[in-house]
Amino acid sequence: MLKDFIKQIYPSIKTKQCLVTFCSTFAVALALILVIAKNTSVKASVSNSAPMSALENEVENDGFEEETIISEEEAERHPIPHDGKYTIEVKSGDTLLNILTDMGVEYKHANDLFVSIRKVFDPRDLRIGQKIEIETATIDGSYVVKSLASTLKTGQHLNVTINDDNTYSARVDKDELIEEVKTVYGQINGTVSASMHNNGVPSRIVANFIHIFSAGVDFRRDIKKGDTYEIMYKNYLLPDGSIAKNGNIIYASITLGKNKMELYRFKDAGGNVDYYTSKGAAIKKNLLSRRPMAHQSSRISSHFGRRRHPIYKDIRTHWGVDYPAPKGSAIYAAGDGVVEVAQYRSGYGNYIRIRHNGEYSTAYGHMNGYARGVRAGTRVKKGQTIGYVGSTGRSTGPHLHYEVIRNGQRVNPLTIKATAANNLTGKNLTNFKHQVSKIDETRKNMLADVQKSEKLAQEQTAQSEKVN
Ligand SMILES: [Zn+2]
What we know:
Blueprint: H1 2-9, H2 20-47, H3 54-62, H4 72-77, E1 84-89, H5 96-102, H6 107-118, E2 131-139, E3 142-153, E4 156-162, E5 168-174, E6 178-187, H7 192-198, H8 203-213, E7 228-237, E8 243-256, E9 259-267, E10 273-276, E11 285-286, E12 305-308, E13 315-318, E14 321-324, E15 330-332, E16 337-345, E17 349-355, E18 360-370, E19 379-380, E20 385-389, E21 399-406, E22 409-411, E23 419-420, H9 426-467
Antiparallel strand pairs: 1-2, 2-3, 3-4, 4-5, 6-7, 7-8, 8-9, 9-10, 11-23, 12-13, 14-21, 15-20, 16-17, 16-19, 17-18, 18-20, 18-21, 21-22
Zinc ion binds near residues 302 and 320.
């Protein structure tokens, strides 16, 4: 740094080796004077008094900047308020207030800014590493923030500006996301997920693909080398073209040997989203064939049908199956669905009913309690814990009372072939078929485009080979 300085003042010094010693001594002395002079100037500007000396003027004219005199660590410990633009990176333990006051912004102004931001974004949610652009200015003798901007998360930006009356306006601007439809296809070589990852399919899409086919494909046993897949899904892009998030799979197919399975996403008139075959048939979602609970044993304390009631001592129909189990052991949802009822019902005690589709529901009684977050309206997955075994209601000991309801009738859980499929009919089917033809046309065009560009690439390769 010193060398540069000397070079600046004495460009000829390089050639005059003998003068080096003398000159550097001189330069050190000069630099020391400058340091002292500079400190005086800072003090002077803070107190807003004392006219500048001739030497200071010279220093300013030399363009000798503070940064070259005060070490970085020194500057960090004692920042000098300086109008300008700063990019601050949030570090562990930082708060918005201490970032601002460390910059030299008065607490009152920093707090005004904090309060305005809090209306649109909780400043405690700053992430370590998050960058904040801050422009400062001296207004009416106070060192204040003129504007502040920061990207909160992908596509969301915090913008704060100072108003004429020195108050602040904060808002969160969202980038408008652009929808993109993407089609990928490929061969399976090894596992489905590895093959797809190698082909650039995002993890979220891979997971969705496996989920929507899981009722029909055993991904561990059914897949052979050379089987193929095709996925059409949505991406949401930021204005710069980068992907903000992946959307849903619109269409997916998997071809196992000669057997091709295709699924189309469809939202029915009731707002339920599911995947259907091209004919509008729902993929079959079986209810759990084993008992829907963690405790698996062969014991059944009471079967479905007419029996002598253990409490009333008369002959009544028992509308479910009783599985004895230790109090507190987990009860599972027998299939994907929506919790319709989760409340105490006299004889049943704590009771849950899940609607799986238009045909099937299942019910669970005498529960000790419900799993966290499970209430009426909750969407549950097959095998998810919904509650715990107990002995509430009219019960003689801890057990799960389990019912299967088909088209409103309670049926024997042990004898049903619970293929709970909900096929599309009527207006839903008409709308669905319309959508299928649109999707198929888009797919055809996209595939044709891909094939065209592949052919073009092949021709170009052939051409260049000829030339060579
Ligand atoms: Zn029972």
